[in-house]
Amino acid sequence: MNELKKQYKHKPRDEKEVRNMKSRLHRMVGQLNGIEKMLDEGRYCGDILIQISAIESALQALGYMVLQDHLETCVREKVKEDDEEVMKEVLTLIRKLK
Amino acid sequence: MNELKKQYKHKPRDEKEVRNMKSRLHRMVGQLNGIEKMLDEGRYCGDILIQISAIESALQALGYMVLQDHLETCVREKVKEDDEEVMKEVLTLIRKLK
Amino acid sequence: MNELKKQYKHKPRDEKEVRNMKSRLHRMVGQLNGIEKMLDEGRYCGDILIQISAIESALQALGYMVLQDHLETCVREKVKEDDEEVMKEVLTLIRKLK
Amino acid sequence: MNELKKQYKHKPRDEKEVRNMKSRLHRMVGQLNGIEKMLDEGRYCGDILIQISAIESALQALGYMVLQDHLETCVREKVKEDDEEVMKEVLTLIRKLK
């Protein structure tokens, strides 16, 4: 990604919410490491798939959390500033998320 | 998970495939750590959501990889042994994956 | 659904867009009837599944179309009226769509 | 689709299951017609999206039904005949379904 294109959130995220998001990220890292261990142990494919599906759900939940925050803050602000493009951007993001 | 219920793959996974899977897991861990950094930097929600969606795709690709291996080995074997339950199990796994 | 709870769109939909949406609905009805015919002919499961997946994509595309219209009109309006609940409703709808 | 490429199911589907599938198809056609009526009445986008999501779920359920039947019959048979390609085909179908 182009360094110059980095965008920042106008209004900082709530500290408690950031802590919540980070603890979710840490848990997912733990789950991914768990899968590596399962591969080392030669565990059954079905068990690994259940673990992958658990991480998928955790990731989706995090995505919805960020999206909700996005809608309530950035999108709300931009709509009030009559930004014509913001809803197209929202739809593009929604389509990307599972 | 009950330790006693741990199941193992009958035929060991191909070494090259395990290496491939592990390198995918490592990349995803890197991407999750990247999101933590983005939160620390107060990066734009849209950028974080794009990153989450990239990990979702990577996870889904890994899931399909494990599923394909499962179908080609465990499931194929069980069908040949006239296991009546294996296809129900496959469908349950498919429904869990995104 | 409770007849009394029926809600209406404040600003009417664009006529051309309604025609577009209806023609998509008709095409999907045709595709569903096509599946019925395939069942009568005893067609191969794989062929039927490909047809189902085509309707899923068509339905998803229609959903995004209605969602985009919703975001650009109803949601935009409600944000401007400082409606506190509208983004929660949007997120609930997004979670329901595939 | 090429008429010559039409494939047929080797073992006919269970009559009761075909009736079940057809009644699901008819219900979905009814739901699509319901959306057309909602468009004519200028109904709220949120209500239409909930209806679309209901059809998506119904379609997905039908897809899983056909897939289960496929796994239990065609796929099982082909595995027993040592067909090398069948699992690749299954995975392609799974990836297409939502």
Helix content of chain A: over 70%
Count of separate DSSP helical elements of chain A: 3
Biggest interface and its residues per chain? C-D, 47 and 46 residues
Shape of chain A: elongated
Look at the structure and name the CATH superfamily of chain A. Metal-sensitive repressor, helix protomer
Residue stretches of chain A low in confidence (pLDDT < 50, at least 5 long) are none
The SSE order of chain A reads HHH
First CA to last CA of chain A: what distance?
Answer: 22 Å
- CATH class of chain A, anyone? Mainly Alpha
Total number of β-strand segments of chain A? Answer: 0
- Oligomer type: homotetramer
- Estimate the mean pLDDT confidence of chain A: 94
Structural class of chain A: mainly alpha
Q: From the coordinates shown, what is the CATH architecture of chain A?
A: Up-down Bundle
Roughly how many Å is the radius of gyration of chain A? 18 Å
Largest sheet of chain A: none
Overall tally of domains of chain A: 1
**CATH fold name of chain A:** Methane Monooxygenase Hydroxylase, Chain G, domain 1
Strand content range of chain A: under 5%
